[in-house]
């Protein structure tokens, strides 16, 4: 009866490093049919990260070439000289296919996407407190003290700009936060501006059928 628009939802999940957005996205992908974009970065792989799965790990020269060729949907120089970005082609292909697409990216890139796709759903994952965030960042043990401080400083800037997003979800417990994100996405799918056509049929025909049944 209702024909929905063919394009999938473009979902952006951001939040400070250590807020737990990666865990929430993983949980989301287990239960929902969403395609997650693989970002490109010039940072070194961490232990256990796989090229082409965690990220496409590339050189700065290669990354800049992709920018020059207009092959990036967005990009940002996130931490001192490190580039992160979303390759454009795959995202557009999946969206046009009617699939929902997830980007787990930071704020600067998120705003670039929002400008190009105003219908993108921007969700900000917030830590329960800045003290808790600092504890989580230190507890990871994957970064030097200087890098933890850099991430914490960026976190402060990002949290202050949360109003640029459509939704904010506090990650107190992963399960609660994931359920909230799922609820947001379900609601977004029901928006009337996602309807392309309403087909109710011919009123006379429907009434006529009812009258025949009554006889
Ligand atoms: P990490 O180095 O911890 O993997 O990621 C650092 C930050 O870069 C995170 O906030 C993450 O969301 C962000 N990030 C990852 N991929 C992209 C991307 O493609 N574009 C942008 N703008 N940020 C990204």
Structural features, described:
The chain is α/β, with parallel strands linked by helices. It has one domain (2-37, 100-214): Rossmann fold. Helices cover 44% and strands 22% of the residues. It has 8 helices and 11 strands. Helix 1 packs across helix 7 and helix 5 (130-140) packs antiparallel against helix 6. The radius of gyration is 21 Å and the shape is elongated. Guanosine-5'-monophosphate is lined by residues 17, 39, 43, 74, 76, 78, 84-86, 104-106, 108-109.
Briefly say what this structure is.
With 215 residues, the chain is α/β, with parallel strands linked by helices.
Question: Structural class of the secondary structure composition?
Answer: alpha/beta
Q: What Rg, in angstroms, do the CA atoms define? A: 21 Å
Instruction: Count structural domains.
Output: 1
Give the overall shape, derived from the CA principal axes: elongated
CATH-defined fold name: Rossmann fold
CATH superfamily: P-loop containing nucleotide triphosphate hydrolases
User: Could you give the order of the helices and strands?
Assistant: EEHEEEHEEHEHEHHEHEH
Strand content: 15-25%
Total of helices: 8
Number of strands: 11
Helix content estimate: 40-55%
The distinct ligands, each listed once, are: guanosine-5'-monophosphate
CATH class: Alpha Beta
Give unreliable regions as ranges. none
CATH architecture: 3-Layer(aba) Sandwich
| Strand arrangement in the largest pleated sheet | 3-8-2-9-10
Average of pLDDT? 92
* Main beta-sheet strand count, sense and barrel state: 5 strands, parallel
> How far apart lie the N and C ends?
27 Å
């Amino acid at each position: 009866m209702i024909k929905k628009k063919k394009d999938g939802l473009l979902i952006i999940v951001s939040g400070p490093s250590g807020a737990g957005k990666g865990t929430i996205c993983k949980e989301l992908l287990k239960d929902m049919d969403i395609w997650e974009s693989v970002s490109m970065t010039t940072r070194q792989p961490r232990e256990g990260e796989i090229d082409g799965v965690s990220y496409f790990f590339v050189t700065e020269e290669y990354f800049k070439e992709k920018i020059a060729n207009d092959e990036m949907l967005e990009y940002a120089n996130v931490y001192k000289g490190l580039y992160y970005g979303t390759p454009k082609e795959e995202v557009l292909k999946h969206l046009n296919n009617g699939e929902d697409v997830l980007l787990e990216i930071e704020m600067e890139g998120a705003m670039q996407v929002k400008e190009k796709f105003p219908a993108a759903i921007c969700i900000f994952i917030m830590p329960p407190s800045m003290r808790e965030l600092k504890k989580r960042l230190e507890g990871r043990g994957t970064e030097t003290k200087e890098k933890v401080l850099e991430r914490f400083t960026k976190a402060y800037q990002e949290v202050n700009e949360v109003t640029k997003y459509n939704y904010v979800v506090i990650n107190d417990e992963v399960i609660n936060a994931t359920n909230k994100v799922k609820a947001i996405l379900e609601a977004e799918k029901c928006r009337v501006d996602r309807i392309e056509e309403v087909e109710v049929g011919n009123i006379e025909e429907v009434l006529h059928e009812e009258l025949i049944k009554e006889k």
